[in-house]
Amino acid sequence: MSRCGTRAGCAPLAGATGGEGRKAMTYCCGILVREGLVMMADTRTNAGLDNISTFRKLHIFERPGESVLLLATAGNLSVSQGAIHLLDEGVPDPADETITTRLIDAPSMSAAAHLVGIATRLARTQASEGFEQSGVNFDVSFLLGGQIGGGGMRLFMVYAAGNAIECTIDTPYFQIGEHKYGKPILDRAISFDMELYDALKIGLISMDSTMRSNLSVGLPLDLALLRRDALTLELSIRVDASDAYFRDLREQWSKALKAAHIAIPRPPYGGVQR
Amino acid sequence: MSRCGTRAGCAPLAGATGGEGRKAMTYCCGILVREGLVMMADTRTNAGLDNISTFRKLHIFERPGESVLLLATAGNLSVSQGAIHLLDEGVPDPADETITTRLIDAPSMSAAAHLVGIATRLARTQASEGFEQSGVNFDVSFLLGGQIGGGGMRLFMVYAAGNAIECTIDTPYFQIGEHKYGKPILDRAISFDMELYDALKIGLISMDSTMRSNLSVGLPLDLALLRRDALTLELSIRVDASDAYFRDLREQWSKALKAAHIAIPRPPYGGVQR
Questions:
Q1: Residue B50, pLDDT score
Q2: Residues B200, A269: C-beta atoms closer than 8 Å
Q3: Is residue A216 assigned to a domain?
Q4: Sign of the Cα pseudo-torsion (B15, B16, B20, B26, in order)
Q5: How far is CA B70 from CA A103, B93, B236, B237, in A?
Q6: What's the rounded mean pLDDT across residues A21-25?
């Protein structure tokens, strides 16, 4: 069974949601630790602050027991949805357009990342036709994580130009979208050897920091978790404002930060150096 | 006595430090609370990661007992130094260039903010001559805080176009430069009624978060503190890597963050929503 776990995958190729400038400000984060992979994305898109909507940005391609690929998207929504659609239905081979490959049929994770790159270039070209002079930004980026058959579990970031980089154990996470507010906690707390659900927790704290400082990133959140070598999703849920754990996490984190800065003594500085 | 507390103010008008693309990535922060004003800036500039230097970005214009103005700069270094030079020596009146006004002679803080705007436009025009086609970014921004005579203490942000906005008690701080990494702690911890040295402490935590996540912001830091109605600087120091208090602050904050996220329980989530 192949499955594109997203409503967006069924949308028309481009522009259905307003290629005219709907920016997916978005925050997505992927963390690859020894035990497995965590991916998360918010669901807010906006074309100006008066036009805010909810769209799924975390897409699941799965054949349980065989392959699980998680794809998170940031940037222009018409391009990212166009690329998702191609990846779901089949990406034409640049050398022979009669041959198409679906993401779920990619033979390896690096082949899958390459396929996402090709789909991105095609979707950008299709979406930008007619918009050459309009100054619309068709940039997108993707996080692709997962495991295919006996291959290793891997995490890639794919840029708008279609090129990709792979996550390594030294910095075992990638972010796309509005990444800066939530980066300090990842820089401090994530390590390759941490427990998988601790990585999920740190990702949620990073998401909280981002949502507090930027209105364009908002609830609900989509979370997915894939244990190494399981080849079947362990967790895939949507967390909204009514979620008690996430509410508690936000409150505890806020209180702990307050206690932390109160505990630090005031600066002893004095004097004017002329 | 008028004083431009900066080596930069004595530099030639433009390009002396490489108008060809030396970017002041910079992080500056100004906090205006009931008791007074805190301003701080890092000192790192770079024209590529292999060309990192130290430049003062926090400039002091002071007539003790009469006026104290603090000006922090971010963006293109040749433009910001050009503007500082004009503000120190006298900004020509757009209507009559034979009339010049020095920043220290501005009759009010709003007039001073207006003068910074005029100096910015002039310095940008001068710096960009000959660079029209080069794609060099001549954007700059300023934080201007202080108090002049019996007028109120105020804090402005001046944009590259010369326009300005003023800080209000609802969000009593401004940031320029690489502001996102250090914004979450300000959003959570700063309030208008907090003690002045607590505001300085929170500013230092914000600076620490920024330096951890972005190499282009670095030590030493310049700090200045002006108590409301004092009309004389209370604190003006440079903090470098050997500073024991700042070292302890960074370590305590790091430990407290670690303790805070460890104290939060792991997510109880499970299951796959199809």
A1: 62
A2: yes
A3: yes
A4: negative
A5: 57, 22, 10, 13
A6: 52
| Burial readout A152-182 (b: 16 or more C-beta within 10 A, e: otherwise) | ebbbbbbbbebebeebeeeebbbbbbbbbbb
Read off the pLDDT of residues B4-14 as tens digits, 9 standing for 90 and up. Answer: 443 333 332 23
Instruction: Tell me how far CA of residue B65 lies from CA of B35, B180, B232, in angstroms.
Output: 17, 36, 6
Least confidently predicted of A11-15, A159-163, B114-118, B222-226: A11-15
Q: Which residues of A touch B190 (CB under 8 A)?
A: none
Picking from B213, B238, B271, the nearest residue to A187 by CB comes out as B213
* pLDDT at position A46: 64
Phi-psi region of B149 (alpha: psi -120 to 50; beta: other; left: phi over 0): left
Q: Structural domain of residue B15, as residue ranges?
A: 2-263
B221 falls within a domain: yes
- A181: chain B residues, CB-CB within 8 Å: 180-181, 183-184
Q: What is the pLDDT of residue B3?
A: 41
Residue at token pair 């310095």: B123
| Mutation for testing the B interface, residue in A31, A173, A181, A198 having most B CBs under 10 Å | A181
In this complex, the residue of A5, A187, A256 whose CB is nearest that of residue B263 is A256
Residue A52: band (very low, low, confident or very high) from pLDDT cuts 50, 70, 90: low
Q: Indicate the number of domains in chain B.
A: 1
**Choice among A160-169, B47-56, B257-266 with the minimum mean pLDDT:** B47-56
Cα–Cα distances (Å) from B211 to A10, A135, B7, B179, B182, in that order, read 43, 34, 24, 11, 9
How much is the average pLDDT of A110-114? Answer: 97
B-interface mutation test, from A195, A197, A257, A262, most B Cβ less than 10 A away = A257
Partner residue opposite A213 with nearest CB, options B187, B202, B225: B187
Cβ-nearest to A202 among B184, B189, B261: B261
pLDDT at B48: 59
pLDDT tens-place string over residues B164-219: 999 999 989 999 999 989 999 999 899 999 999 999 999 999 999 999 888 778 89
Quote the CA–CA distance of B32 and A246 in Å, as a whole number: 33
**Is B128 part of any domain?**
yes
Within 8 A of A59 by CB-CB distance, chain B residues are none
Q: Å from B107 to nearest chain A CA?
A: 25
Query: Do the domain assignments include residue A272?
Result: no
Partner-chain contact A257 B5, CB within 8 Å: no
CATH number of the domain encompassing residue A239: 3.60.20.10
ipTM for the predicted complex comes to: 0.82
In chain B, residues with a C-beta closer than 8 Å to the C-beta of A268 are: 245
Sign of the alpha-carbon torsion through B170, B176, B182, B183 = positive
